[in-house]
Amino acid sequence: GAGVSQSPSNKVTEKGKDVELRCDPISGHTALYWYRQSLGQGLEFLIYFQGNSAPDKSGLPSDRFSAERTGGSVSTLTIQRTQQEDSAVYLCASSLALDRAGHGYTFGSGTRLTVV
Amino acid sequence: KNQVEQSPQSLIILEGKNCTLQCNYTVSPFSNLRWYKQDTGRGPVSLTIMTFSENTKSNGRYTATLDADTKQSSLHITASQLSDSASYICVVSAGYGGSQGNLIFGKGTKLSVKP
User: How far apart are CA A94 and CA A99, in angstroms?
Assistant: First the structure.
C-alpha cells in the first residue's frame, strides 16, 4: 500500500478483555515496529520484526503483550486481559530494512485504545 | 540514563509569528537527532535529521540546529501557519547496536497556531 495502515483507528474495550491491533506495512518494507504513546509521554518501543529473524521483544511491558507477523507482511499486536494502564495510542512503523537510526521510518496513524 | 527533554511543553502563537522549540538530551553515544511533526490523530512524520557533524538543517520554513557539545537542539519555525499546529517530537538515536530501544523519544511540544 501507499502508507502504513492500522486498524481499528479507535478501540474501546472492557477491562479484562483481549484486543487485537492490526498493522499493514508499506509493501516491500521488511522491518516493522510497534510503539506505544501514552498521554503526555514519549513513544515507547514495544517490539520489532525484521524479515524472518526472531523478533526483538525487549520492549514488551508484560507477558500480556504479544505480537506476530505473518508472511513477513501484516502484523498483529495482541493484548490479553487488558488493564486501564494499557490505554494509549499504539503506533506501527515500517522501513525498507532494519533501521535502528530511524532514517526511513514511516508511521501509521495509530490505534487509540481505551480500556474502561 | 539516556533522556530527551523538550521545552516548552506547549506553546500558543499567532499566525505569521516565528517560534523556537528546544530539545536537550543526555544520550551517549550519540548517533543522530531527528525532529518529527505529529498532527492530531496521525503518526509522526520526519522533518529533519542531523548527525554529529551537522549544525543546521532546513526544510522549508523549519530550521533545526544542533550543538553536540552542549547536547542541545532547536527547531525554529518561521512565519507560522495554522497547519503548523501539531506536536513536535525530538528523537535521539544512540550509536550502539542491539534493540530498538536505542531510539529515545522526547515527550513533544504541542504547538497551537491561532489566527
Answer: 9
Closest CA to A17 of A83, A87, A101: A83
CA distance B42 to A89: 10
Size of interface A-B (CB pairs under 8 A): 62
Task: Specify the pLDDT at position A12.
Answer: 98
What spatial distance separates the first Cα and last Cα of chain B, rounded to whole Å?
A: 41
Cα-based torsion angle of the residue sequence A14, A15, A19, A23 in order, rounded to the nearest 10 degrees: 100
Contact A101 B101 (CB under 8 A): no
pLDDT-derived band at B99 (thresholds 50, 70, 90) equals very low
User: Across the interface, which of B32, B43, B103 has its CB nearest the CB of A45?
Assistant: B103
* Category of A110 on φ-ψ map: left (φ > 0), alpha (ψ -120 to 50) or beta: left
pLDDT band at B100 (very low <50, low <70, confident <90, very high): low
Q: Give me the sign of the Cα torsion angle A115, B4, B7, B12.
A: negative
What grid cell was written down for B60? 522549508
Chain B contact present for A49, CB below 8 A: no
Residue B112 neighbours by CB under 8 Å, 6+ apart:
B10, B11, B12, B13, B85
